[in-house]
Specification:
16 strands; 28 helices; DNA Primase, Chain A
Length: 634
Amino acid sequence: MPFITQSSIQEVIDKMDAVAVMGDYVRLENRSGRFMGLCPFHNEKTPSFSVNPDLKLYHCFGCGKGGTVLNFIMEMDKLTFPEAVESLAKRFGVTLQYEAGGNAETDKNAAKTEALFDLYSRVAGSFHYLLVKTPQGKPALTYVLSRGISYEMVEKFKLGYAPADREWLFRFLSKKGYSEEFLADSALFSRKYPLTSFFADRLIFPINDRQGRTAAFGGRLLSGDGPKYLNTPEFAIYKKGQTLFAVDAALPEIKKTKEAYLAEGYMDVIALHQAGVTNSVAPLGTAFTGEQAHLLRRFAERVNLIFDSDDAGQTAAVKAILTCRRNGLVAYIVMPGNPAQAAAQAGRIHDDEGAGVFKDALKKVINVKDPADILKEFGKEVLKNCVKSVILDMDYLIARSKELYNTNVPEGKFKAAAFVFPYLETLDSDVVRDDALGRLAGALRADREAVRNDYNNRRTSALMSHSAMGNSQGQRPSNVPLRMNEELFLLAVVAVNDGLYSQFRARLSMEEIEDPAAKDIFIALEECFVHDETGLDAILPRISLENARKFIVERGVTTEFSSNPEQLISDGIKRIKQKRIERRSTKIVTELRLIESNQNKDENTYRSAALDDELLLEKMHIDAELRKLKENKE
C-alpha cells in the first residue's frame, strides 16, 4: 500500500477544522478563544478538556491525555494513521496523493484492514440480495415482514440471509478471487473447518461501526437446532465492546437530543427506528459494557433503558443502570408494559392527533415483552408513545428491591437497602447521594441514620479492602511532569509556531541546551527540518520523552506561546546565552582564585601563571559577550 505524501498530509492538517472534528465527539463551548468540554477519556462533571483551534491540539487537564487532531481521531475511532488522514481528507475535500515505499509491515496491516472492510461490505450486499431477490431468502423475508418490520427498514439496515448450505459462501468468495488464507482470517468461517461458514440459514443483521462500515454480522436462527443468535467473534476490525448495533444510524438523533434508547436486541432497535425513535441502539450479544457507555457519553447525557420484564431482563437492567452512572450517564427505565401509562399516551394521540387508537386494545400491552412485539401488535404510534413512559433509575431500583425482598421485616429491609447501595456508590455528588439515601430510607420505612450508617460501613470496608490490595500489589510509578524553565519555554515556543525553527537554529546550537527534555525537543525539531516537515503532527512522534510530549501538548492548548512568538524566541535565546555565559564567568572566577591560592607553591608557579593568563583572556571575551547581549547586540 503506497504512502500518503507529506504534502497531502499537511494539506489535510491545514484545511481541517479542529473544533468541528472534535465537536463530533465532545460538546465544546467557546470560552474566550479556548474551547472546553467534558473529556471523552475519563468521567468528569466539570469540563477540563481543552482544544486549541489554531494549533489543532487538545489536552485534558484532568487525566493528562493530549495530542493533535489526528492523534485524537486515531484513538477515538481506532484508526491507523493513514485511515485517519483519509477519513479527514474525505470530510474536508482534499484529494490525496500517494507515493511508493514506506514501512512494509505498516502498509501490509493497513491494506489488510481495508481489504477486510471491503470484504464485509461485499458479503453484506450479497446476503441482502439473497434476502430480497431470491426464492431461498423468501422465508426469512416473510418472517421479518410478519414481525411488523417494513420493507423500508429492511433496506435501511441492509438485512440479509445466509444460505443453509454452509459451504456456499466459501465457494462464492473463492470465485471472486479471495484466497483461502485471507478468508481464514476473516472470522466468516470455522477455524476448524475453513470451508464452513459461521452463519447458515440465518437472518443476517450487518453490524456497522460509527463510520457506517460493516465490521461484523449478527445472525438469527430461522430453523433447526442451535443458539437463537450468533455474532461474529472479535477479530482485527471488530471489538464488540466498542460499538453498538445501529450506532451509525442513531448518532445524528443522539447528538440532537442528547439522549439515547438502549434496547436488548436487533429487532427491537429496528422496530424503534420504524416508530421514529431513531436514537435507539443495542449491545451486541453481551451485557452493556463500560466502553459502550463511554461511547454514548461522548454525545448523550441520558440513556433510556428498554429491557424485558422477566428476571433476566431486570437483572440486565440493573447492571446497565450501574454502567451508565459509572460513566457519567443518567439512566431512565422505560416501562412499556404499564397499561395505564400506555392508555394515557394513546389518549393524547386520539384527542390531539386523531390517530384513532383503541384504548381497550392497549390493555394487552402488559403481556407484550419488547418493542418488536409492541410494533407487531399495535403499530408504530403506540410503540413511540409507550417508550415515553419512563421512571428514574433510582425509583426503579427501590421498586425492584421491594419486589425481591420482604421489607416488612428488618432483615428484608437491610437486604433491600444493600441492593441499592452499589448505585449510591456511582453518584459523584454528596448532595445527590444524600437525597437518594433519604428517599431509600423513606421507601423502606427505615431510620435514615441507620441506612446511612449501613451504607458508610459498607463503603469503608470496600475502601479498606481496595487499599490493602493496592499496597500488596504495589503501584507503578507515573511519569514525572516537567516543570517550566527557560529552555523548555523557548523550545515549546519554537515547536508550536511553524516557520520559526530555521531562524532559531541559526542563533542557538544544540550544545547550548542543557535540559534533557528541551534537548529532546530540539532533536525532534532538527529531524523535521532535515526531512522538510512541519507541524506538531510531525514533531510530537519524534519526541522520545513522554513527559516532553505531554508538556508541549499541555502548554500548547493555552495561548502563552502564540502571542508575539518572534519576540519570545529572541528574548529566550538572549536569556539562555546570558545565563550560560554567566555560569562560565563564575566558574572562571573560581578557578582564578584557586590559582592565586597556589602561587606560593614553586612547582606550580609557571603552569599557574600560563593558565591564569588564558583564563583572564577568556574572562575578557565573556565580559564582552555579556555587554553585547545586555545592549541587544547579540
